[in-house]
Amino acid sequence: MNNTAQVQQLNPNAIALCTLGRWIASRHWVPATGGNFSIRQTDNMALVTASGKDKGELSPQDLLPVSWQADQLHCQYGTPSAETALHAQLYQLDPQIKAVLHTHSVHATVFSCLIGADNYPFRGYEMQKAISGIQSHEQTLTLAIFDNTQDIPALARQVQQRWKSKALPFALLVRGHGLYVWGYSLAEAKRHLEGWEFLINCELERLKITGKP
Ligand SMILES: CSCCC(=O)C(=O)COP(=O)(O)O
Ligand SMILES: [Zn+2]
């Protein structure tokens, strides 16, 4: 272990993200090596999960410091998540973002495959108020959906394009792949993850019963 990796063992952000990873795994939202997480350290640097790890069994040294300058990424050591470019894009789109969580739940994945449109409106659920900025179940909360691709920098550019017309409400879905959520604190990102998972589950159940999107 190098000196920087040793420092992470004492970093409260790194410890908190590992603890949250165990909770997320207990909900079966990061099976196998699916999912990745990050937490911002400075304006242009975050700790990002190492690629290919079981995200329910993370140690602080599995969180790698990654810095960015526009679309250029720099990692001092190790191999960060294959999806790091999307995390870096989100941090650049909103400097207030503190944490990004990406999960692979069965429900979000199946839901994303059933919806052909590039967004899906949620309306009428009290739980919408778990998402910052939503004060009423009567407000429409629109989840952006992107086609999956192995070209993560290209996906990051699509997110940037979509953000130009309106900031995304703390989440996006990648079809057949999984959910991304973020927050202005780690606790807020966790709340958004639980809120969006609940909303997606509700709509999936409704679709199963009524057959109507
Ligand atoms: C079986 S997971 C496939 C890759 C993926 O979508 C993911 O979220 C995990 O990739 P990482 O490089 O962050 O481990
Ligand atoms: Zn993924």
From TrEMBL:
| Reactions catalysed, as given in the entry | 5-(methylsulfanyl)-D-ribulose 1-phosphate = 5-methylsulfanyl-2,3-dioxopentyl phosphate + H2O
- Binding residues annotated for Zn(2+), in chain numbering: H102, H104
Q: Transmembrane region positions?
A: none
Q: Which cofactor does it need?
A: Zn(2+)
Q: Which residues form the Class II aldolase/adducin N-terminal domain?
A: 15-204
Q: How is the cofactor bound?
A: Binds 1 zinc ion per subunit.
Keywords assigned by UniProt, alphabetized: Amino-acid biosynthesis, Lyase, Metal-binding, Methionine biosynthesis, Zinc
The record, for Pfam families, names: Aldolase_II
Q: Give, as one word, the top-level EC class.
A: lyase
The family assignment reads: Belongs to the aldolase class II family. MtnB subfamily.
Descriptive protein name: Methylthioribulose-1-phosphate dehydratase
Where does this protein come from, organism-wise?
A: Alishewanella maricola
Taxonomic lineage from the root: Bacteria, Pseudomonadati, Pseudomonadota, Gammaproteobacteria, Alteromonadales
